[in-house]
Design goal:
By secondary structure, the chain is an alpha+beta fold. It is built from 12 helices and 16 strands. Strands 1, 2, 3, 4, 5, 6, 14, 15 and 16 form a 9-stranded mixed sheet that branches. Strands 7, 9, 10, 12 and 13 form a 5-stranded antiparallel sheet that branches. α1 packs across α12, α8 runs antiparallel to α9 and α10 crosses α12. The N terminus is likely disordered.
Length: 490
């Protein structure tokens, strides 16, 4: 059995929950703009910018697509370039100095009374999956621009105590090159030069795509993208939850405690190809039947890990709570030659494994690997397991999380018709989805704010966020800036 360990970091779906909150009744998401009235302050420009204009801009970006009749923007595609140019114009409208770095990331920065101070970075991604929803990534970028535009419109932009920079990352989803976080990993300094040689399904490399768009695509250019950790104070990301918990609790916003570690495996099972009608059952070396048994093993292992693992910490095990929210997914499966009258000669399938605790995740993978070898030996087939992606779990900074929680509570307190409901603690969640924050954690401390979405649906055209929740997210970020980044608190 071969197990290989590559250089790069995790990817995206599913959601793990850790919640510290009293369960309360609250809003449910319909199809309208919202059920509560948000008091944005005495100046109506707050609502105009944080909600109305922000929502309009999200809709504008949703129309910029490489797909015909569906939303698709991949790394440096024609639609991504058009979206980047539009985002640049909105950053300039907010009074920010703008540029595009050699990896296609879009930057908008405002200096402060102390331009040499460590900068606060706020960001998310402008790329999408295929047949995407309009809020994933986009919402975080637009809310950040909107909050800074409010400071500009109210004459407060020059009162920031440190530079604030909004970044729209060029690639987070990894759709085109099957490698996530190209944009944020470059800024964090964890993208190796070898990434430039990765090719897409058409054989076009990252390097060639960059050169097509007038970027240098050299080791030196990657060095230029990398930020000095001493120049950065912290990183904040606003993102839709991509899960159903906030909606079930009736809260528009939640604070992220951390991001689950992720492992992606490719399993290759090789057997003996043969005629479906002439090879007796007891003589078959069937990789499809073996793969079915392996997948059932994986499901049992992740549903009932207590039946397979030792939890006694004194005897070298780990706490049972380490596996809270453990999820395993087989998302792709294929066979060769894939004919109805042929016993397959080879079956390939993928495994996506996520857990809050890195040691527990490794234990699950090791247990699966050992038992998989036993099953394959019993069935007289060959089994290879390759590790394709690996990302350690990431914890959000406790102080930054508290500051975001206070800002979210202040923003939700403005939702006048539901204000009484939001006097309880803001929900605290673990994310099972990978975000740019995972890469940025290698550069600086991170904090994340989740925004609820209807039914927890994401990576789908049915992805939906209430207009008022978009406004509440922008207001929470504005409150964060006012509370922590201003000379005087307003």
């Amino acid at each position: 059995m071969a197990i290989s360990f590559p250089w790069f970091y995790g990817s995206k779906p599913l959601l793990l929950f850790h919640v510290s909150i009293l369960l309360i009744s609250g809003l449910s998401l319909g199809t309208g703009t919202g059920t509560g009235t948000v008091d944005y302050g005495s100046d109506e420009v707050f609502a105009d910018v944080l909600r109305d204009e922000a929502v309009d801009r999200i809709h504008q970006l949703s129309k910029i697509s490489d797909g015909d009749g569906y939303l698709e923007r991949t790394f440096l595609s024609p639609a991504s370039i058009r979206a980047a140019n539009l985002i640049l114009s909105w950053m300039q409208d907010a009074g920010l100095r703008t540029w595009v770095d050699p990896m296609g990331n879009v930057h908008g920065r405002t200096e402060s009374v102390n331009p040499t101070a460590e900068a606060l970075l706020i960001g998310s991604h402008l790329d999408t999956v295929i047949d995407a929803g309009m809020y994933d990534g986009t919402l975080g970028i637009i809310c950040a621009i909107s909050a800074l535009k409010v400071l500009k419109n109210t004459g407060k932009l020059d009162e920031l105590v440190r530079p604030v920079e909004v970044i729209a990352f060029s690639d987070e989803e990894g759709v085109r090159f099957q490698t996530t976080f190209l944009g944020s990993a470059a800024i964090a300094g964890i993208l190796p030069e070898s990434a430039l040689k990765i090719s897409d399904k058409n054989g076009v490399t990252v390097e060639e795509v960059l050169k097509e768009n007038s970027f240098e695509a050299t080791e030196e250019s990657l060095t230029q993208v990398k930020y000095d950790p001493k120049s950065v104070w912290g990183y904040i990301e606003l993102h839709i939850e991509q899960g159903p918990l906030l909606e079930s609790l009736g809260y528009p916003l939640g604070v992220v405690k951390g991001i689950a570690g992720q492992t992606r495996l490719k399993v290759i099972v090789r057997g003996s190809q043969g005629h479906a009608g002439t090879v007796p059952m007891f003589m078959r070396q069937d990789p499809m039947a073996a793969s079915a048994e392996l997948i059932i093993l994986l499901e049992s292992l992740c549903k009932h890990p207590e039946n397979f693992l030792t939890y006694d910490e004194k005897c070298g095990g780990f706490p049972k709570e380490s596996l809270t929210g453990l999820v395993c997914t087989v998302g792709e499966i294929s066979s060769w030659p894939s004919a109805s009258n042929v016993i397959p000669g080879q079956v390939n399938f993928t495994i996506d494994l996520r857990a809050i605790d890195d040691m527990a995740r490794e234990a699950i993978m090791l247990e699966f690997s050992n038992r998989a070898q036993q099953i394959c030996n019993k069935r007289m087939v060959n089994c290879t397991i390759d590790r394709k992606h690996n990302a350690e779990a990431v914890k959000c900074d406790p102080l930054l999380s508290e500051q975001l929680k206070y800002a979210a509570r202040s923003a939700l307190g403005k939702m006048s018709t539901e204000a009484a409901n939001y006097q309880h603690e803001i929900p605290v969640l673990m994310s099972g989805a990978g975000h740019d924050s995972m890469a940025m954690s290698h550069l600086t401390k991170i904090g994340m704010l989740f925004i609820r979405c209807r039914g927890g649906v994401s990576h789908s055209p049915d992805e939906f966020v209430l207009d008022d929740d978009v406004g509440a997210a922008g207001l929470a970020l504005l409150k964060f800036l006012q509370n922590n980044m201003m000379i005087s608190v307003t």
